[in-house]
Every structure is written in C-alpha cells, then in structure tokens.
C-alpha cells in the first residue's frame, strides 16, 4: 500500500469535464461516488453511463471503474481515482425489478429509493404524508440486497427510511446528510434515524452542501468537525464518512432540474427560496474537489486521532464497499 | 480438467424454458451461444438479458454467464453450461455507438452487423444491392474490436462481409452457415468469403438448419461430415466449429418474426416459401439440444481424429473466445 492516505468522497454531483479528473488527483481522492441520475429514465441513465465509459477510455491512466473495494485499493496504489456510480432516485429502474441487476451490471452501486417526492418504492422528505415502503419497494430492497446495490435514503422521509433499515437484510446508507440535532434542515436526519441506521451497520456521509450546514456558507471547519465529533460519540466513529454533495461548476438550471424534474409546472425551490434559488456558495474551506484534504487537516487540528481521521476520510466507506457491493459472500 | 469432452454449440435460438437447461447437460454442452435479439430495440433487448438474469438466479447449479473462455472452462469443470449472448442484428445499439460497450457490459459477445436487410451498419444477404459497410458501420466495427464484441456476418451480403473482414482489426465470425459450394442456398457462404474469413483468423460455425443443408431435412450425418472434411481441407480444421442454429420448440410465428420483424406489411418467406412457410423439420440425427454429441460420433465414424473432433466440437470456439472476448491483451 502507498503511504498516502486513502480518501473517498461518497457523493459528488460535479458538472463533470475532464479537468475535474485532474482535480480528483489533486484532492488525493482514491474514489468518488458520482451521481448519474436524478430523474432520468432507464434509457437516459444508460446514456449517462455511456458518457463515463467514454471517459474511462480517454483517461485510462487517471480513471477506473469502482465496482468493488479492491478497485479502490488498486486506484490508491496506482494513483488513479475509482468512480462509483449512484442514482439519487429509483427512476432508472422504472417499473421493472429486472433493471436493478441490469443497472448493477452497468456499474451502479448506490440507489436512493426516493428523491424528495413519493416514488414507486418509498416516500421523499418533502411529502406531507409518508406511508412507508411500497409493495414494489419491499421487493426492490430484497433484489438490491441480492445483487449488492446499496439502498440510499438521503432524500427519503423518516418512516420510509426506518422501514428500509428494518426491511433491508444488509446495511444501508445515507450518503449525504447531517444530523438534524446539529442543523434542523428538512434534509438532515433525526437522531432516531441515524441511530437505527448505524445500529444496523449502516453509514452516514456528512454533507458540505450549504443548506445542510449550520450557518450555511459561513459554516466553519471547526463547526463541521465539532458535529463529527458529537456524531462519533453518539453513533461510533466506524459509521461515519464524507459525502460532500459537491455540485461544482453546475449552472443554476441544474438545481432547478434536481428540484423540479419533469413533475412540476410550479417552481419548487426545495431547500432554497425565491430570493435564494440557485446553488449556494460553498464554505471557503471546501470550494472544489481539490479541497478534500482540508477536511483531514481540520479533523486532525480538532483533535481526532490519525486512525479516526483515516476512518472518516475513507477507511469506513472502503470497509462498507467491501461488505456491500456485489452479492453477499 | 474433466475427462469429458468440451462441447460448444455456437448458435442456438431455442424457445427457452427451464427444461432446456437440463437438455444442455444431457447434450454435454459446456457453452451455448444464445441469440437474444433479431429485431429488438435496446430496451427490448435489455428485457431479454433480464430474462436470463432471472434464470441465472434460479438455476445457479446448472447455468453460468459465458463472458470469457475461462468461464467455459469453469462450466466444463463444474458440469454447468456457460451461456454466451449474441444478437443477430445491430438493432440493440440503435443509432448510438456508446451502446456497443453497454451491451458488452451486459454480456453480449457476438453481434451481426445486419440481418437479411440493410441495417445502419451493413447490408443483409436478401438485398438486391450491397453498398458495403456504412460510415457508422466502420466506426462500430472499430468499437466492437475495442471492447471485444465479435462481428458476426452470418446473415450479411458478400461485399459487406468481405469489407468487414478487411476493416476489422480482430478476427470475425460467421456463426451459423455452410459453404455455398456444398449447398447453394442464399444464406450459405461463397468460397471467397470463407477463405477471406479464415485467412484472417476468423471462424465459421456449421449450421444444421435444414434450409442450409444439402437435401434439407433428409441430409444425412455422413453428408454433413463430408462437408466438414472438405472444408477442413480447404480452410484448415482450426477455423471450423458448430453453430447449429437450432430453433427447438419455436412456434412458426417466431420464424415470421425473424423474417418480417416490424419492417414488412407483405409476408416475406425468407428461406422458406408459401407452401413451406414454417420451421422445417430437423434431420433425425439433430432434433434437440440433447443430440449434440451425435455430431462428435458422426465425425469420429467419418474418420476424423480425436484431436480434430475435439477441435470442431468446441476447442476451436474456445480458443476464439479466449482471443476475441474482451479487450485485446
């Protein structure tokens, strides 16, 4: 193994262009979980897979597929970045349970059961009512367990999330959110949810999307690290990682797409508002992909041990990948 | 390695039901190349992949994926059958070169560039004019070479086939046809085509579809073996295999679909005729999947050496799989 630390950012939705792949190297990232779907149909999602296939072909010395934990170790050893694909919604599987394995064959490793709204599988966190996991949802979780496609409940509602944790026979993830007790945003997660998640072996990735942060864009590194320290006390360091939710270089039209998809004729501002409708400014200490190592420095300065810094910055996600990507060993 | 022979049938289009998988075991088949597309769109073809995914799940002790030559060796060693997927047309890639790699990721290993008619890539053997490989076709062959999806020209016209052999930087295949000099059917291949194919390292799989046989359903094993012996003299034993084109248990509506797809409002009888429109009766020595070993016995009785029988019955296709499935080593 290289002496360099092994870093994983378990959620980015950058407006990917080739120069960002060099920024991943500058950010010392051995793996990034990349969102390739918000509301896309199966066919549209295949085109998104295909876009990355072209980049794997064009940048073989920089990028590789992240299908297993060992792929991430190989990326770390060879100085590459492994790309792990995920969906923030279940739209790619449409109404067809067979598409779960097909998407896994194409490289998907995380799938949210719902994105803000009710889906065919579960309820999103912006609905007024949360009837829990649907009939299709129960079967989809079982199939996701079988093939090793991780259930992600980042944008789902509480009851659905608690039921998903209960129904799933393998640990699940909340790839990008923070504790509600630290910053009571609708997208942040209650103590009950995080406790149930982590008690079942699941992982939470801490988000640096300003709407999820105390003091938003002005949140300091020290505040962020204090949140992690409190979470480690409550849930154990082994359940914690980073899922920055970085939306670098995205135009504001993309946040409209994320919030409104094709479902709404009335502007939905999601976590924003009419006078703060676009992407919010990032905190100064995490503006770009390259800034990822700043978090390690912040955690060290805050007083985390080297071992705990390594766990939060990548080691925990790596263990989770080993155990949850692909069929159960 | 097991002492049992390693048999490969490099083309079947059976009306697959679970009992056929046991027949594969009875037929001692370590691998079968299975057609999963004639005219299907990408989305329809994905459903066909998905159908087999369900069977891989349901019959793990009998079936496995055939993605590499080593998969076939594992199937042989463990008494399973490896299924190799192929398309008899390029319809699954639609107009999108990116779908070549996507289909390869899903398990496709052979793709015909055209099926009887003109396609976006090449000309089929029933067209009056054959303008050769198209602009898209030239790029598609290059991409198929890159990912290791074998070009199959079984149903293509002569000029297109000769051009495909020339353009392709890796050997190609005619998975199921016989020599035109033995039986001058439109689907059988000229000496010029087979010579160019095999000189470039390509393989031909001999067909037992009655329309491709001298004396059709009455063709004897001895006649079939004599054809193979003459072909071995002309092209070398190492380029020859079996691609039976067995359409066991298919209703006649399926041969109509094969011939007419969605493109024709006038009945096209293809190799048949108005008074012989359905599937023809198989020769008595190859009626079902289980009869595959009869061919080995026939070749031995005809006078082929054990080594040559093993080569034609599976060894040659296995070598071809090693060299042509997946990126070039």
| SS element count, helices of chain A | 11
Q: Calculate the terminal CA-CA distance of chain A, rounded to whole Å.
A: 24 Å
| Shape type of chain A | globular
| Oligomerization | homodimer
CATH architecture assignment name of chain A: Alpha-Beta Barrel
Work out the number of β strands of chain A: 9
Calculate Rg of chain A over CA atoms: 18 Å
Mean pLDDT of chain A: 97
Please summarize what this structure is.
2 copies of one chain form a homodimer. Chain A is α/β, with parallel strands linked by helices and 329 residues long.
Provide keyphrases for this structure.
homodimer; 329 residues; alpha/beta; TIM Barrel; six-stranded parallel beta sheet; three-stranded parallel beta sheet; 11 helices; 40% helix; 13% strand; globular
Fold and architecture overview:
The structure is a homodimer of 329-residue chains. With 329 residues, chain A is of the alpha/beta class. Chain A has a single domain (7-324), classed as TIM Barrel (Alpha-Beta Barrel). Helices cover 40% and strands 13% of the residues of chain A. Chain A is built from eleven helices and nine strands. Chain A has helices spanning 18-26, 42-58, 69-78, 98-106, 135-147, 158-167, 191-199, 221-235, 252-260, 292-302, 306-324, and strands spanning 7-12, 29-37, 63-65, 81-87, 108-112, 150-152, 173-174, 203-206, 240-242. In chain A, strands 1, 2, 3, 4, 5 and 6 form a six-stranded parallel sheet that branches. In chain A, helix 3 links the parallel strand 3 (63-65) and strand 4 (81-87). In chain A, helix 8 (221-235) crosses helix 10 and helix 10 (292-302) crosses helix 11. The longest helix of chain A has 19 residues, at 306-324. The relative contact order of chain A is 0.15. The model of chain A has no long low-confidence stretch (mean pLDDT 97). At the A-B interface, helix 2 and helix 4 of A face helix 2 and helix 4 of B.
């Amino acid at each position: 193994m290289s002496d360099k630390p092994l870093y994983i950012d378990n959620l980015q939705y950058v407006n990917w262009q080739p120069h960002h792949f060099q920024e991943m190297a500058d950010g010392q990232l051995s793996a990034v979980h990349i969102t390739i779907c918000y509301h896309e149909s199966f066919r549209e999602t295949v085109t998104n897979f295909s876009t990355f296939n072209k980049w794997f072909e064009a940048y073989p010395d920089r990028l590789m597929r992240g299908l297993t934990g060992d792929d991430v170790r190989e990326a770390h050893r060879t100085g590459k970045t492994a790309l792990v694909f995920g969906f923030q919604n279940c739209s790619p599987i449409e109404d067809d349970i067979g598409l779960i394995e097909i998407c896994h064959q194409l490289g998907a490793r995380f799938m949210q059961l719902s994105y803000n709204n009710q889906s065919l599988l579960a309820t999103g966190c912006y609905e007024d009512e949360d009837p829990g996991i649907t009939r299709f949802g129960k079967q989809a979780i079982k199939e996701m367990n079988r093939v090793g496609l991780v259930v992600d409940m980042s944008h789902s509602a509480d009851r659905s999330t608690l039921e998903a944790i209960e129904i799933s026979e393998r640990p699940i993830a909340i790839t990008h959110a923070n504790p509600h007790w630290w910053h009571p945003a609708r997208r942040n997660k209650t103590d009950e949810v995080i406790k149930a998640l982590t008690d079942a072996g699941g992982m939470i990735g801490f988000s640096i999307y300003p709407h999820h942060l105390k003091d938003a864009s002005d949140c300091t590194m020290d505040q962020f690290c204090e949140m992690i320290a409190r979470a480690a006390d409550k849930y154990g360091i082994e359940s914690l990682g980073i899922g920055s939710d970085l939306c670098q270089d995205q135009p504001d039209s993309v946040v409209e797409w994320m919030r409104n998809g094709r479902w709404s004729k009335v502007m939905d501002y999601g976590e924003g508002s009419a006078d703060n409708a676009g992407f919010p400014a990032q905190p100064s200490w995490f503006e770009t992909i390259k800034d990822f190592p700043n978090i390690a420095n912040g955690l060290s300065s805050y007083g985390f041990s080297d071992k705990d810094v390594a766990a939060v910055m990548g080691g925990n996600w790596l263990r989770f990948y080993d155990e949850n990507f692909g069929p159960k060993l």
